[in-house]
Specification:
By secondary structure, the chain is of the alpha/beta class. Helix content is about 35%, strand content about 20%. It is globular.
């Protein structure tokens, strides 16, 4: 019996739908990561232990309840069967390893999304440090903005120059934050109003946050306004916009005029 078999686990109903599976898997991986954080590891050791533990658990859980589906994980080998499959789970077992390795930071996440026959159809983002999971089965209701001016969330360590220019253009406030999942959920949570990124991400960085944001009624696209497309041969998906709908045209117009260099 493996260590994963001995973990306490929240039961999943036998007839659980894909939304419930996504939320359950992300939440369980989040619980495990909180345990890993208590093991006394630091730095690279903690990052690696978290990545591996969450990956192994997600592969095990999805393999148990959706054995016929393919899984694309940041921490696993690319199973090329996904390109001919109708159903592919796209997961990031630990998004924001830097923040995870810096307790008590809470801006890290677990991403679990399902792509089916051409588009994302279900997903969940767990924020274990906040003890919350957002999922498409119970779409979060985005409250009216409480800010007097727009808030743009960006990397806390390397915010792109064009985002700073966008902040100035909109007379906005820059909100520094860690993982992509935490950033997108910050829009859902009324902590920010928009997340604009260019410069490199992969499908697992945005799949679950994007499908949850869509379910919540937020605007999502590439920075040129084209759709975000998943389960591609090349999993690089370098840019995105997630924002309140009323900000989308202003942001698209700015990028169209000024670019992202």
């Amino acid at each position: 019996m493996s260590d994963l078999d001995q973990l306490p686990r929240t039961p999943l109903a036998p007839d659980a739908d894909d939304h419930e599976v996504a939320a359950w898997a992300a939440t369980e991986a989040g619980h495990l990561l909180l345990q890993v954080r208590q093991q006394g590891l630091e730095g690279r050791e903690l990052k690696d232990a978290g990545d591996q533990a969450a990956h192994e658990l997600l592969m095990k859980l999805l393999g148990e309840v959706r054995p016929d589906d393919v899984v694309l994980s940041e921490e696993g080998k690319d199973d090329r069967r996904r390109l001919h499959s109708d159903r592919v789970w796209i997961v990031d077992p630990l998004d924001g390893t830097r923040e995870f390795s810096e307790p008590p930071r809470d801006d890290w996440a677990v991403h679990v999304a399902l792509w089916e026959k051409g588009d994302l159809v279900a997903g969940a983002v767990a924020l274990p440090g906040l003890d919350v999971t957002y999922d498409t089965g119970r779409p979060p209701a985005v409250p009216p903005s409480t800010a007097s001016r727009p808030r743009i969330v960006a990397s806390r360590t390397r915010p792109p120059a064009f985002v700073q220019a966008l902040v100035e253009h909109l007379d906005a406030e820059l909100v520094p934050m860690g993982s992509a999942g935490a950033k997108v959920m910050s829009v859902v949570r009324d902590v920010s109003d928009a997340y604009v990124h260019a410069g490199g991400q992969y499908e697992w960085d945005s799949a679950a946050p994007v499908v949850v944001a869509r379910a919540a009624g937020l605007f999502t696209s590439r920075v040129d306004g084209s759709p975000l497309v998943y389960n591609q041969d090349d999993v690089l998906l370098p840019d995105l916009i997630v924002c309140r709908p009323e900000l989308s045209q202003q942001i698209l117009d700015f990028v169209r005029e000024h670019g992202t260099d």
